Amino acid sequence: MKYKRILLKLSGEALMGDRAYGIDPARLAEYAEDIKLIHDQGVEIAIVIGGGNIFRGVAGASNGMDRVQGDYMGMLATVINGMALQGALEDKGMLTRLQTALKIEAIAEPYIKRRAVRHLEKNRIVIFGAGTGNPYFTTDTAAVLRGVEIHADVILKGTRVDGIYTADPEKDPSATKYETLTFSEVISKNLNVMDSTAFTLSQENALPIVVFDMNKKGNLLKICQGENIGTTVQG
């Protein structure tokens, strides 16, 4: 396998399936099956999931809500998604741990880096919830931060499209896909795949990012085996 330890970043919207909001159990089960394929190959897996299918702090702020309050609500949404994903993974027979940046002892461990790494070494899947625990930081930034902290080999960002394009391919049919990009190219071209804080943190720590279509079965395994799937950002 090309990668021994990965940080998988999933958007909250990815869990909606064809629904307008919330969580689609069928989509969760599909993701769990794909994750099991690499877990069975011995890949150590950490996961960060967004909360946009339940609540977005930025959207709340635009409707007059206090931004800090809204961001904390968004963090709690990521914990709900983390619990749902944890259940789906355990249904497939995988051992998991949910760690959160906000203390919610009844349902999750507090985030402790050494404990997280030990879980990974014991072949448990670790799900990180509640973002960084701070407002004004996205779950993309949280994913890169946790990836750096646990010494992941790569950030795998699962989306609905098969990589990074010159424009939004769902809106512009003439958009073309990049096979590889440097971090500086992503920032200079203003390609809005992750926020600039996440990209900068990844660049400073030489942690590559692969953006790929998570909804195509087997893509996750192919990337871990070294196939050129999606768009790779590095250098």
From TrEMBL:
It holds the Pfam family AA_kinase. UMP binds at G51, D71, T132, G133, N134, P135, Y136, F137, T138, T139. Its EC number is 2.7.4.22. InterPro entries: AceGlu_kinase-like_sf (IPR036393), Asp/Glu/Uridylate_kinase (IPR001048), Uridylate_kinase (IPR011817), Uridylate_kinase_bac (IPR015963). It comes from the Bacteria. It is found in: Cytoplasm. GO terms for biological process: 'de novo' CTP biosynthetic process; UDP biosynthetic process. ATP binds at K9, L10, S11, G12, G52, R56, T159, Y165, D168. Coiled coil: none annotated. Catalyzes the reversible phosphorylation of UMP to UDP. Belongs to the UMP kinase family. NCBIfam families: pyrH_bact. Homohexamer. This is Uridylate kinase. It comes from Flavobacterium silvaticum. The lineage of its organism: Bacteria, Pseudomonadati, Bacteroidota, Flavobacteriia, Flavobacteriales. The gene is pyrH.
